[in-house]
Amino acid sequence: MDHAASATQHDDRLSVTPSRWRDLVALTKPGIIGGNLIATLGGYFLAAHGTFDWMTFAAVMVGIALVIASGCACNNVIDRDIDALMARTRHRPLVKGRISITQALSASALLGVAGIVCLALGTNGLTVALAVTGWVVYVGLYSLYMKRHSEYGTLVGSLSGAMPPVVGYCAVTGQFDSGALMLLVIFCLWQMPHSYAIAIFRYADYRRASIPVLPVVHGIKRAKHHILGYIIAFIPASLALVLASQAGAGYLLVALAMGGYWLYLALCGFRLGDDVRWAKKVFGVSILTITALSLVMVLEAMVPMWA
Question: Model's pTM, two decimal places?
């Protein structure tokens, strides 16, 4: 082989490597990891009450990020057939064949083991058990079966989606107390209108892939009623942290303002004609709401540390 051919192959290898890394990163759904890390922050600082341990904090943040990345990579493998049918997901690496199933499963296993080891070394047994439970629910119950076969898949999936803040909380306390239970309920209730809003503005995708989400099975009008009902339940659940003296006045104001506006948007859905545009607003406000609540948990806990 001459030097020119060798150089060309070397250049090809160099050009492929960054792309392969981008595909591997995409496999882990970084946006989902980022959102869940904000929720984990909230749970950690809610339990910390002004104290801070760098080792525990680093272990829970890195550990849960790796476990979530593992679950997302595994989900990509399971969903590759329906991803090919949906406009939003048809360009994912597995669908396009840029990453093999073996590579994706190997990455998932490596990330999962690393995450569990990180949590085991830096936190406690309960935190590890909760993280593993969240993974099993997301991959085993939701992705493998419920998502494809039942309209209640969203409800089951909400349990895994609510686990990160509970993991952050229990990494500090080492016990599943009333605070952990309230976080679990708050985030489970939040997941439902958030997910139903996605199902409405991605209605065509879900229908094409035969995914039995509520709007597809029972219609958008019924989904709107469920969105309204879950937001009505979410508001008092979020305020329970204040009543239990787990959160303060700043959290109360943010919870009332964001929850109230989210409720207002839900009510608007019954008189607006553009369901897609309305659902996107409900989805956007859901992200803002849970992010604001999580960050105010952090800020309120950090005030005593700065004092």
Answer: 0.90
